[in-house]
Amino acid sequence: MSAEMDALVNGVTNQLEALESTLAGLREVRGRFTSEDRSVSAEVDGDGALTGLRLAESVTSRPPAEVARLVVWACREAAARATAQRAEILAGLNESLTPGNVGGDPDSARSDH
User: What DSSP character marks residue 58?
Assistant: First the structure.
């Protein structure tokens, strides 16, 4: 193969590895939040789905509406943290997929060369 083709293959291989790494990272995303008084803890996955919720015994002395607000707040904060993690991972992918990181000239794949 020519040096240009080798560079193109290496660039595509690097992009594939970046995609695989990104997918693995996205599977590992977890957002966690615990209220300051430690009465409510929530965990969400990378899609924002609730995967864990812990309520301390102390919540039983609070009005249900207050507990509901605490639970929703903790879930929202956990989801925001998961979203931030996802954004970081995807920003890394976007950086690795920029045209300059592929290798070779984009026009080198045209058949009229």
Answer: G
